[in-house]
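CORE FACILITY INTAKE
Project code: CF-77B
Contact: R.S. (postdoc)
Sample description: multi-component assembly, two entities in total
Requested service: structural model of the whole complex
Turnaround: standard
Below are the sequence entries exactly as provided by the requester. Do not edit them.
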Amino acid sequence: MREMVWKKRKNMDGNMKNKIRVNGMTGLGALYHKELADHLKSKRFLILLILIGSTSFASLYGALTALGNAEDSNYLFLKLYTTSGSSIPSFLSFIALLGPIIGLALGFDAINSERSSGTLNRLVSQPIYRDSIIIGKFLAGTAVIATIIYSMGAMLGAMGVLVTGLKPSGEEVWRVLIFLTFTVIYVAFWLAISILFSVVCRHAATSALASIALWIFFAIFMSLVASIIANAMYPINDEYSALVNSMDHYTLNLGINRLSPYYLYSEAVSTIMNPGVRSVNVVTVDQLVGAVSGYLSLGQSLLLVWPHLTGLAALLLVAFGGAYLGFMRQEVRAN
Amino acid sequence: MTEKSRNVIEIAHLTKQYGEKIAVNDLNLCIKRGEVFGLLGPNGAGKTTTILMLLGLTEPTAGSALIEGMDCTRNPLEVKSITGYLPDNVGFYSDMTGRQNLRFTGRMNGLSGKALEERIDGLLRRVGMEQAANRKAGTYSKGMRQRLGIADVLMKDPEIIIMDEPTLGIDPEGMRELLTLIRELAQEDGRTILISSHQLHQIQQVCDRVGIFVSGQLIASGTLSELEEQIRKDGSYLLELEVQPCDDRLLAMLRQQEGVRKISKEGNTFLIDAKTDLRASLTQFLGEYGYTVLHLHQRGGDLDEIYRRYFEKAGQSDERDGMEKKKKYGWKYEK
């Protein structure tokens, strides 16, 4: 009997090379699918969908009521996304404010819940690369974000077309697609931030609170901080100082504000969605001399916000890189 | 049978330092194919750290660990594809069923389709979890989680199984089943099993060899009889004695007996630690003074005793090293 077993084992030894059949991608694929299924089946996803869906409809309603009084009848399709009316903010500003919630909700317990439920131990002992755990989670989260954002954007446009009978031009569709892509990157940044906190904080509640605090800081307090610093550096209290300092004051204020992903994103998408925006920086009267008032082409609008896109992508990479490094360097047994 | 004598796990001069603290100190250990090896030691002795290094989850400060000739630090993926790890307090995704949890593990190990489902069914039958397989893992009891954990480990059909405190918190019936299963895995399947534990009674039922691990050092290893032999050489005997009446006068007299090193009292029973076999002289002595012997038993032969002895030895050598360490390991056995 024992002889037989050893024989069997010996045969297995011969197959050892075949047995080690696992490559890193297998693990990544399996993890990605599991995370995606988890997200899509979760109540959390449903709540997010309801939240984003209802705000989209509200903003569409507001835009439709205000659209009738629009002075400018060019690019009306884009105005569905950017016009606020009946004291309801536009889709653009809703997404800038609430978009981060999607990212935060999908990622705040990514790592620490695995740790506290004891599944992380089991996960890392599988023949997968350790980074595929965090990459799989990030990719699955980003896929969910992209699904929500693109479908909401498309639905809003479709309903707008149905109600108003507007026919979007090719350029308008491109502009909306670019806007939605910006939004996905922006929300993915918040996903990366929340994953970073889930690596750093041991409890899911702590990481949720920390990421929400950061979100509120950037969305509300950053502009206050920027103006305080700008006022201190370049005061514009009296007429003289206003004359001397206002340019520097404004530039510094803007520069500090642009550190905030919220501001960066808002500025970029309002430029993309509004071809009338010709500059994102201070323009002197001198520079405007001889300028023909008109709309920017899509390429020129993109050129204006290219630095913003680069900045957002860099922020995303820094946040995810931090989470990645933290996760890779962390002891498995930190519970 | 030559296969059997081959070392599956080879650990040489393995050392792990966390800052000042040395968790594992120059560990040398070889485990043969098909062997059940018990790694015994108190909490915090470095057992889990050793296991994590074997799985390539923690980098050793010095030394090396080989599994099937593969370096655990450099080829963790290959090592993990033939090594199953059952962590202490194994956790599962609570909103997935037992079957789904196993399926996920199978996918990470490169299984798919029919082969995957067949293996899941087979393993669920083997650990007796068919009934509960389609229930959410969150509803499982500790014993069921442990059984599912074993099925989970076997999903990859491992050559080597490492179990960290597998007997913790299991009821006696579950324990019996678990031990039978461990025996089966080693004898019938020819798998190599490494069990870390501080629960001696269970371990001595299944282990071929044990190693005693205290403060990062393997102070003894071998079969039970080998360890026992070693203890005997030191000339140490432990006698259990229960007499009627049981008074202080007796205690005082016992102390004066030749060869008695230490006397302690457990309930009504005296524990006498002596250099020689006292039984003959003691019976005579007790009879002289009119005591009735209720219980007289020479301890030894079971792991409990061996364990205690080695701890005591380690504690004594630590005493010389300094007070700090003594507090840590000596306290348990000094009255």
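Facility notes:
- DSSP finds 13 helices and 14 strands in chain B.
- The radius of gyration of chain B is 24 Å.
Invoice: internal transfer
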